[in-house]
Design a protein that fits this description.
Elements lengths: L1 H28 L19 E8 L11 E4 L3 E2 L2 E9 L7 E5 L24 E3 L4 E2 L10 E8 L2 E6 L11 E6 L1
Parallel strand pairs: 1-4, 3-10, 7-8
Antiparallel strand pairs: 1-2, 4-8, 5-6, 5-9, 9-10
């Protein structure tokens, strides 16, 4: 009886140690899912005005337009602007910065058969987990960043993974 209890205790301890080591590896090396609300990595010090952008799917996938892209500000001064995109959802996401034409409103771009909008004229993208610039998507719990020199104007921040824009992942940013 004592040996089976000892085996159970040692097995439980081994599971806890392996779990802790796995989480530590994710935090140290990035690139894997930690979970919503838990950051797998940290950005470096970013230049210029920093816009924090939260990307989330509220844990419910794309059904019902539950995806959101929310910048912490709606207006910034022209010049150097850094975007820090943090994925607090359960799906991969990205951030693409697109100019808005005169009279164009955010959320009105044509969505193609692939579920994406055209990226012609894109000024930059944050889609690399735990890194700057373009990649394969920001994994849950991770972040990505991009620094741009923006002239005055109106811009649309979008997640352009298939179906995400149509589900509500866009926001307008004014650069004064």
């Amino acid at each position: 009886m004592k040996s089976s209890r000892l085996t159970i205790v040692l097995g439980a301890a081994a599971v806890l140690v392996l779990t802790a080591l796995s989480v530590a590896a994710v935090v140290l090396f990035g690139g894997a899912t930690v979970g919503p609300g838990v950051r797998a990595c940290s950005s470096p010090s970013l230049a210029g005005t920093v816009v924090d952008v939260t990307l989330t799917d509220m844990g419910r996938g794309m059904m019902g337009g539950r995806l959101r892209l929310v910048p912490d500000v709606r207006t910034v001064p022209h010049g150097t602007v850094s975007f820090l995109a943090v994925n607090r959802g359960a799906l991969p996401h990205e951030l693409v910065v697109l100019p808005l034409a005169d009279g164009q409103r955010a959320g009105t771009r044509a969505v193609g058969a692939d579920g994406k909008v055209g990226e012609e004229g894109a000024l930059g993208e944050a889609s690399a987990s735990c890194a700057q610039g373009e990649g394969d998507g920001i994994l849950p719990g991770a972040e990505s960043w991009v620094t741009l020199d923006l002239p005055p104007g109106r811009y649309e921040l979008v997640c352009n993974l298939p179906g995400h824009y149509a589900a509500g992942m866009y926001a307008e940013l004014t650069v004064s």
